Amino acid sequence: METGYQVYELGAMDSWERHIGGRVPVPGRKFLEGELALASFGVSVNERKPGEEAGYWHDHHVVEELYLFLEGEGELALGTELLQVHAGTAVRVGPGVPRTWRCRPDSPIPLRWICVRGGGAPLAEIGMDSERPDLPMPWRA
User: Fold this and answer.
1) Count of domains in the chain?
2) Which residue range(s) make up the domain with 73?
């Protein structure tokens, strides 16, 4: 019987490290559209330990993203800007803005956040619209 909803048990935030996901699979990331029938938006949960970074930049042609930081201290690079992020920081990033992130080495706990992605059309129609520009990491001297 169709209920009109689905449930996926993600686990407590301190268990997110066990998830592995992404184009290049890395620990601490889970894309929920793989577990739930999300059609018009995507959601990922993410964790990086102190000192860990994305290791790449990416941007989107159509998709916008909303980053909701839940725990830890981190940095979110947006083009030439470097934002300090922490629990309670919410950042909307539009198409065409290169982005990368890291958990600050001095963060007492891992950086954990939720990323919500949407593009005004079903994600299946948009497809993989991200690119990874070859940019240096902003925190490396």
Assistant:
1) 1
2) 45-141
